[in-house]
Amino acid sequence: MRLPPNIDYKARVDQLIESLKLEKAQNTHIGGNMVKGVSGGERKRTSIGVELITDPSLIFLDEPTTGLDSFTAQSVVEVLNALAQSGRTVVSTIHQPNTDTFDMFDQLMLVAQGRIIYMNDASKSVDYFSMIGYPCPDNTNPADHFMAMMSIESYDIDAEEGEELIRRQTVVDTDYKAKIEEMYSKYENSELKCDSDSMHPEARPIKAENGDAYMPGFWKQYCLLLQRAFRNILRLKLTSSFKLMTILFTSILTVLVFGQLGDGAKSIQSRNGVLFFIIIGAVFNQVQGVGKFVTWQF
User: What's the whole-model pTM score?
Assistant: First the structure.
């Protein structure tokens, strides 16, 4: 679907499996709620591989380590780091990385209240915040320190219910916004501020032809999706059995309710009802399988 026919599909997939360290899982189903498959980290790396199949130069990831243990999360970030070292630009949002993971970051952007309070080399961030009055305590993960520093939850609201609590929350909100505004102002006036007009010496402008993506024709898309649908039916035997039972039950129920409508004018409204019931049943039967089908790759 995403590669032109002159590409060696198998070679491209084998290369991705090797670069993503998925050799042990290459013959394993992704799995789902009812079928055991690959691990969480392997699933994350497979999702990354799906996007890498077209060999993009820029990769965006939204919290790729969410739901993973620290070791697995670090393995995923190591893969992303290797992709960045190969010449790609990898941009990712991430929450609470451990120290080893944080040390692998090249550039770091911290955003609070819609304000960029830091954007530069990750290795310079600890010294920068120490310089402006927010030192990182010894033996503390810098990422945890930054999260606490930017979070309004770090303020202790010690007040009873009623007007005193409302007043205290208002004071906390005001102090927090002032703190973020101060950090933003100091960053804007610091030597570490990244100027949007400056360009990295290795950066190259994207040419117009680089944005042209391969788009298969209608019949090729139809045949490939039909092939995948049949494969999912064979792979998800239990789910397919439930769907078949649902169709049979719905058909029997329809016959029992609308089996004797007659041919008179009074049956027109009932015929509209049975057509509506059949269409709704068919649509819901297909929608129920979407969540299962998207978890499988072939």
Answer: 0.65
